[in-house]
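We treat protein structure as text, and this decision shapes the records that our systems exchange. We quote a single record here, exactly as it is kept in our systems:
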Amino acid sequence: PRPHPAFRVRPLTCTETRRGDQQVVHSLGDGAVHVSAARHDATFGFSAVFDAGASQEAVFEGSGMRQLVELAMDGFSCTVFAFGQTGSGKTYTLMGPLAQSEVQPASPAVLGLMQRSFTCLLEQSRSRGSDLALSASYLEIYNEQVRDLLSPGPPCALPLRWSKTRGFYVENQLSVEFESLEAIVSLLLQVPPPTGSQRRRTSAHALNRHSSRSHTLLTVHIHSRAVRAHPAPGAGWGLRASSGPSKQGTLCFVDLAGSERVKETGSSGELSVEANSINRSLLALGHCISLLAKPRGKRTHIPYRDSKLTRLLARSLGGSGITLMVACISPSSRCLSETLSTLHYASRARRVTTRP
């Protein structure tokens, strides 16, 4: 199968409206996106397109995310990653509003793909009669260093290794077992001492007040066994775990840092270094996707080793996994260059095939 790019166009912000930005991106229906601006008039096709009025629930149902959760329960390695310019709505699409916490939970209507997937996982477990064992790991790639967001204490760089059986993997990363899906959400949104998303590097600049300065990968490991009715001695019939084969799947959520032009962000010093590191890793990702999009007989070496990000996404992109790409864009005329770049990026991803 191929990655199924879904496209999301966020609304114009108040700042963009006040300065007179024009809306240059329009949804035509049936998965088509039209870009209309001076010297640019093009139409792109995708699996699904969500305009500014689309709800979080519509994105979850229409993107194929529910099917991805079901495949993960069936033992497949599944990945969803959000891509786009800084400020285009990637983190909101995956996680919902930034302000939510255990004390102030977000409204159910604005929960992102991540929380909705956890709920779907629980529903599927109950309807299938499955016994789930869950664990999760949460990493960020910041300035080409891999750091664990779940381990206590100050974050430290972890080595990235390769083996014939596991492929690329992070050595000494913490994997936490959970008894419930609610516990995963609790840890992700936990307030002091900070863990999970609270520890992710963010900064403010001219394009985005809460710009993500790192790529994050949350991986949920799903070990499921069928539960059937068996006669229990002296207790009649009851539900007990079947002795049949178990299934082990993964569901990985990748929130990529936003691509950006350093000149437009007004970044300098450390922020400039971060931006250049982000852009280099996204360039490496785009290069890998371009080569993977070629027919198998015409492919050259795929340079996964060019960045930490492409190493960790190697199996998801062109290996044994099933991948959903959610491309997020701003409809503003001021962001036209980055919007076209994202559209071409996602168009190339459509041609990549995997063998799950």
About this structure: The CA atoms of residues 125 and 131 lie 7 Å apart. The domain at 4-97+131-195+213-225+246-261+275-350 is CATH 3.40.850.10 (Kinesin). The radius of gyration is 21 Å.
